């Protein structure tokens, strides 16, 4: 396979992956906190909360990075589950289900869970609004145990219950880790890239996953002479790099909105924020490429590699692009780490 064919294959692979997201469905009584949990998992206010979707009968759908989260509508109403519910939502196409409850466990939840179970689906139980669990003269451990026992009795199955609070963020990190554990190997990278990091370990996993993407995209971008960079003797498909940098930024949740708010709360982050914004543009990418090209060309000359022939030029191009991509990834990672540090101490 020529380097051009290889680049084309890589480009198609990237497109396919982005089109085929990890799909998670949340079901449970209206008001139990499905929309709020979705927002916590993606790390920004993607869906409106406090509105019962059963009125509109339209699913709240969040498409974020390589993730599709659905707040199933009409749940717990007389119309639910209607006969063609499973077909309408292509129930088989979801990778994971979360049953979210906050008050008493509901018969409708049990029915839906059984249906899922008989279809061989994996479902996690999430008891949200942990901050509201309280009873006079009863320890929280005991109350949690009662909820767990009640869930197992209703579902007639030995289940684990994840306790969360969207108010205090209790259990959100653990829920995110549980989602990771309960999806296929092929889907894990999608979760790691897309979900908000609540720990430094998760952030580190995000970096590993993004790094793979840098390598693949660098190969796809190193296709000679599509956009010759002035002063650099290599050709680069800049559009691939613009896409790559935008994805890295988004994977780390570093949206304009987020960066603006951080600029005010942590002024020392401003130089890092400026880098993340500046280098994501075509002009910024050109600056980075030129910087790494200078180093790479010096290195290859000192190794007596003749700078001739397309294959060699393309492989040098690949090294240059990869270094530029990695440097952008480092900037995003460092910024995300500093922001997480601040979030964890507050
Ligand atoms: N106290 C408390 N309130 C919550 C929590 N999660 C969500 N809520 C509130 O419960 C209401 C319903 O939440 P929402 O996410 O819209 O529920 P949905 O109908 O299941 O999507 C909203 O007013 C939320 O602010 C929580 O963990 N603790
Ligand atoms: Mg909702």
Automatic annotation (TrEMBL):
<protein>
    <submittedName>
        <fullName>Interferon-inducible GTPase domain-containing protein</fullName>
    </submittedName>
</protein>
<dbReference type="GO" id="GO:0016020">
    <property type="term" value="C:membrane"/>
</dbReference>
<dbReference type="InterPro" id="IPR030385">
    <property type="entry name" value="G_IRG_dom"/>
</dbReference>
<dbReference type="Pfam" id="PF05049">
    <property type="entry name" value="IIGP"/>
</dbReference>
<dbReference type="InterPro" id="IPR027417">
    <property type="entry name" value="P-loop_NTPase"/>
</dbReference>
<dbReference type="GO" id="GO:0005525">
    <property type="term" value="F:GTP binding"/>
</dbReference>
<dbReference type="InterPro" id="IPR007743">
    <property type="entry name" value="Immunity-related_GTPase-like"/>
</dbReference>
<feature type="domain" description="IRG-type G">
    <location>
        <begin position="20"/>
        <end position="225"/>
    </location>
</feature>
């Amino acid at each position: 396979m020529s380097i051009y064919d290889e680049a084309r294959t890589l480009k198609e692979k990237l497109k396919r992956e982005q089109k085929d997201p990890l799909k998670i469905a949340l079901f449970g009584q209206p008001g139990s906190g499905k929309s709020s949990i979705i927002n916590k998992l993606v790390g920004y206010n993607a869906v409106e909360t406090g509105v019962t979707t059963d009125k509109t009968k339209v699913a709240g759908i969040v498409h974020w990075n390589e993730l599709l989260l659905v707040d199933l509508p009409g749940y717990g109403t007389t119309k639910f589950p209607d006969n063609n519910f499973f077909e309408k939502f292509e129930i088989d196409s979801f990778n994971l289900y979360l049953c979210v409850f906050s008050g008493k466990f509901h018969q409708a939840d049990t029915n839906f869970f059984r249906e899922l179970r008989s279809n061989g689906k994996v479902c996690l139980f999430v008891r949200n609004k942990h901050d509201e669990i309280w009873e006079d003269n009863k320890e929280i451990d005991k109350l949690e145990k009662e909820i767990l026992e009640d869930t197992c009795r209703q579902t007639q199955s030995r289940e684990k219950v994840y306790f969360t609070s969207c108010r205090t963020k209790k259990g959100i990190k653990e829920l995110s880790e549980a989602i990771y554990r309960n999806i296929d190997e092929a889907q894990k990278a999608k979760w790691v890239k897309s979900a908000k990091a609540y720990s430094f370990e998760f952030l580190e996993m995000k970096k590993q996953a993004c790094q793979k993407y840098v390598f693949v995209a660098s190969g796809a971008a190193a296709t000679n002479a599509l956009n010759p960079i002035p002063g650099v003797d290599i050709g680069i498909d800049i559009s691939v790099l613009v896409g790559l940098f935008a994805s890295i930024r988004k994977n780390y949740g570093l949206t304009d909105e987020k960066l603006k708010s951080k600029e005010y709360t942590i002024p020392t982050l401003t130089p890092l924020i400026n880098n993340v914004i500046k280098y994501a543009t075509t002009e910024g990418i050109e600056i980075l490429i030129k910087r790494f090209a200078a180093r790479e060309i010096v290195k290859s000359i000192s190794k007596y590699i003749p700078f001739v022939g397309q294959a060699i030029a393309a492989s040098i191009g690949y090294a240059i692009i990869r270094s530029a991509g990695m440097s952008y990834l480092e900037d995003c990672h460092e910024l995300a780490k500093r922001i997480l540090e601040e979030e964890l101490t507050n």
